[in-house]
Amino acid sequence: MCQPVRVADSVSAPPICVLGLGLIGGSLLRAAVAAGREGWGWNRSAPTVDAALADGFDAGTDLAAVLRRAAAARALIVVAVPMPAVDATLAAIAEHAPDSPVTDVVSVKVEVAAAVARHGLQDRFVGGHPMAGTSESGWVAGDADLFRDAVWVVSADDGVDPAIWAQVARLALDCGSVVVPAESAEHDAAVARISHLPHVLAEALALSGAAGGDLALGLAAGSFRDGTRVASTAPQLVRAMCEGNRAALLTSLDETLEVLNRARTELAGQGTLIELVESGHDARLRYEQRERWTITDIPPGSENWLERMRDAGRRGGVLRP
């Protein structure tokens, strides 16, 4: 009889050290502590740390001290800084906690993995990406329930340590997520389509509405509001995620421009949008009707476990608590 992969029951839960206490990092620290984990965090901004302390969380601005504490406690270090700050953060880890297990929550995986390798941390690293967020940012926007029922990608790249992989998966499960195993390049290609491209399109749609002046904006209702929601995200965060996944985003953007150009040609020449509207409707129904299934009988470290995990993730499989 097939049994679910009981990562949460079979793996120790070390303390966590969260580097970066913005929306995602701050929510992660809240969620992990709420789940009974010991955890502390770091942020370079003193006001952010003060806010975290005021809310009863353990945090500091001394990165070296925080990392030495993580090394002593054998904590799982979570890199939760924006992509432009990842390299410097990894350099500090390599100096002060080189033997600690490390994961991240950055929205691109290939570029992070390359930075990890440059700093010699690849043997202790397993990437991660919780598919959750809001248009708000900063510690004050954090929510312990942000990851509840969300997908959390855990990188299933060749050579990852199965024990650290299981620790990262357990953290995601403790935060209320379901885990999807995926190889880093496949992850980046996928999120370019369903996360980064929507940001680009939202910015373009917002510009189109604004170009219509106050009348257009005054008439805007649900479709414009929903289509432009993520355009209210801080521009520097949008740039960091999209520019960090440039190659994959260019591919999906080129494909979308081809679809729009074909629709424009059809509308101009034949007066119809039938191909775009009907195929888009079918694609949306496919999204709405998708079903997740629980991955069973693939213990981390077992024979061919990484390829089996990747295959399961491609087919809609998830790990559950």
In short:
The chain is an alpha/beta fold and 321 residues long.
Notes on the structure:
With 321 residues, the chain is of the alpha/beta class. The chain has two domains: 8-182 and 290-318, NAD(P)-binding Rossmann-like Domain (Rossmann fold, 3-Layer(aba) Sandwich); 188-288, 6-phosphogluconate dehydrogenase C-terminal like domain (6-phosphogluconate dehydrogenase C-terminal fold). It is 54% helix and 11% strand. It has 14 helices and ten strands. It has helices at 7-10, 23-34, 46-54, 63-73, 83-96, 110-118, 162-174, 184-211, 213-219, 222-227, 235-243, 246-270, 274-288, 305-314; strands at residues 16-19, 39-42, 59-60, 76-79, 102-104, 128-130, 151-155, 178-182, 293-294, 317-318. The strands form three sheets. A five-stranded parallel beta sheet has the order 3-2-1-4-5, sandwiched between helices. It has a three-stranded mixed beta sheet with strand order 6-7-8. Strands 9-10 form a two-stranded parallel ribbon. The chain is globular and about 70 Å long.
Secondary-structure blueprint:
Layout: H1 7-10, E1 16-19, H2 23-34, E2 39-42, H3 46-54, E3 59-60, H4 63-73, E4 76-79, H5 83-96, E5 102-104, H6 110-118, E6 128-130, E7 151-155, H7 162-174, E8 178-182, H8 184-211, H9 213-219, H10 222-227, H11 235-243, H12 246-270, H13 274-288, E9 293-294, H14 305-314, E10 317-318
Parallel strand pairs: 1-2, 1-4, 2-3, 4-5, 7-8, 9-10
Antiparallel strand pairs: 6-7
